[in-house]
Design brief:
The chain is 11% helix and 37% strand. The chain has a 7-stranded antiparallel sheet, with no helix packed on it. Strand 15 and strand 16 form a beta hairpin. It starts with 18 loop residues before the first strand and ends with a strand. It has 6 helices and 26 strands. The structure holds manganese (II) ion (MN) (2 copies).
Length: 354
C-alpha cells in the first residue's frame, strides 16, 4: 500500500539537524546493562532536553546517584524496574514500574533504578536540560571512592577495615540478584510519599482519540511529582498527519517506538527542514517552532514524547483558523470564502488520510 506524502520543502538552511539515532549509539556498556544518551553534545539543537536509552539485566542496579542540573522522567518500554526516590525531607518513595508506566525524580533528589523483573528491562529517560550528561552524574561509588576511609568509617560507624571492599571508582551499573517482591522490601516509611509517588500508572490512562490517531498525556495534572516534565504516548495511523502546530511553553522531544514518519520543522523567515524517522530515532523541536508529523509507512506510528514543562500546551492550525472569522481568514490567505467554509469547524489534532 502506498501513502501520500507531502513533498519535502527545501532544506536550504536556517533549521539545524533535529534527528539523532539514539538506538544505534554506542553508549556506556557494563556487565549489568548499558546506557546511550543524546544531549546537546550529540544533537546541538537540543539545548533544553536530554535523553537516555537504558537496559538493565534482571537484578542489575543503576546505582544510587543524583544530578545537579536536571529533573529525570522515565518510561518503561520492556520489562519492569523498581525505582526508589529519597527526598530532602528524608522520605522514601519505592515503586515497581512495569512496561507502559512512568516515573519521576525531581532535580537533585537521590534515586536508584533496579530491574525487579525476570527479563531484561529497557526504558527511556528524559532530562529537562540538554547539557545534562548521564555519564557525569553524582554516583555514590564515585563519591565514596573519593572520600577518605576515616571519614566514611566515622560517618557510618564502622571500622575502616570493614570498608576495604568498596569499589575503587564509579560502578554506574552493577549486576545483582533479583530483589524480593515490593511488599517484602519496601520500607514502611515509603507510605509517607504515597500521595506524591515517584511512579504513575500511565498504562491505565485512556488515550484521547482523534480521526487519525490517539494521544495520552501525563502532565503535572495526572502525575503531580513531575512538575517540570510532561510525557505523552501518541499513535498515528498510516497516512495520517499530526497537524501543523506549535507549543507555546515547551520544547518537544520524542523517541520513535514503532513505525516510520516524516517530520517538518518551520523556523520562520522561510526556513524549514524535513527529516525521516525510524524506530530508535529521537526528534527535538525547540519551543515555539511550527512542526507537523506524517506517518509515511504502512504500519501505525507509536511515539514516546516529552515536553520540558509540567503543563501541556499546543496551538494547532485547524483550530486556530476555525476560531477566526471566515472573512478574515479568506482575506489573510487570498482564498474564496467558500473554500474557507469547507475547513474543519474545530481542532483536527491528528487528521486521518483523506
Ligand atoms: Mn538519574
Ligand atoms: Mn508537537
Amino acid at each position: 500500500m502506498s501513502t501520500t506524502v507531502s513533498p519535502a520543502p527545501d532544506n536550504s538552511g536556517g533549521v539545524p539537524v533535529f534527528r539523532y539515532s539514539l538506538a544505534s549509539a554506542t553508549g556506556k556498556v557494563t556487565p549489568g546493562g548499558w546506557g546511550k544518551q543524546v544531549t546537546a553534545a550529540e544533537l546541538p539543537i537540543s539545548q533544553d532536553i536530554a535523553g537516555v536509552l537504558m537496559r538493565l539485566e534482571p537484578g542489575a542496579v543503576r546505582e544510587l546517584h543524583w544530578h545537579a542540573i536536571a529533573a529525570e522522567w522515565g518510561y518503561v518500554v520492556e520489562g519492569q524496574v523498581r525505582v526508589t526516590l529519597f527526598d530532602p525531607e528524608q522520605r522514601i518513595s519505592m515503586e515497581d514500574v512495569p512496561a507502559g508506566d512512568v516515573f519521576s525524580f525531581p532535580r537533585g533528589y537521590g534515586h536508584v533504578i533496579q530491574n525487579s523483573g525476570t527479563v531484561p528491562a529497557t526504558f527511556i529517560l528524559v532530562f529537562d536540560n540538554g547539557h545534562f550528561s548521564e555519564f557525569a552524574t553524582f554516583s555514590s561509588t564515585d563519591w565514596l571512592a573519593h572520600t577518605p576511609r576515616n571519614v566514611l568509617a566515622e560517618t557510618l560507624g564502622t571500622p575502616e577495615s570493614s570498608l576495604a571492599g568498596l569499589p575503587a571508582g564509579e560502578v554506574y551499573i552493577v549486576p545483582g540478584p533479583v530483589p524480593p517482591p515490593l511488599a517484602e522490601t519496601r520500607p514502611a516509611t515509603a507510605q509517607l510519599l504515597a500521595a506524591n509517588s515517584c511512579a504513575y500508572r500511565f498504562s491505565q490512562q485512556a488515550p484521547e482519540r482523534y480521526a487519525g490517531g490517539t494521544i495520552a498525556i501525563a502532565s503535572q495534572l495526572q502525575f503531580p511529582l513531575s512538575s517540570t516534565i510532561t510525557g505523552a504516548v501518541m499513535t498515528i495511523d498510516p497516512g495520517a498527519i499530526r497537524e501543523p502546530h506549535w507549543h507555546p511553553n515547551a520544547s518537544e522531544w520524542f523517541y520513535v517506538l514503532a513505525g516510520t514518519l516524516q517530520v517538518t520543522v518551520f523556523a520562520s523567515q522561510g526556513h524549514a527542514r524535513t527529516d525521516q524517522f525510524a524506530p530508535g530515532d529521537v526528534c527535538y523541536v525547540p519551543r515555539g517552532l511550527g512542526h507537523y508529523l506524517e506517518n509515511t509507512g504502512d504500519a501505525e506510528v507509536r511515539l514516546l514524547l516529552a515536553f520540558n514543562s509540567g503543563t501541556y500546551e499546543q496551538i494547532g492550525l485547524s483550530g486556530w483558523l476555525a476560531a477566526n472569522p471566515r472573512a478574515l481568514v479568506a482575506t489573510n490567505f487570498g482564498l474564496p470564502e467558500t473554500t474557507v467554509d469547507a475547513f474543519p469547524g474545530g481542532t483536527e489534532y491528528i487528521a486521518a488520510r483523506r
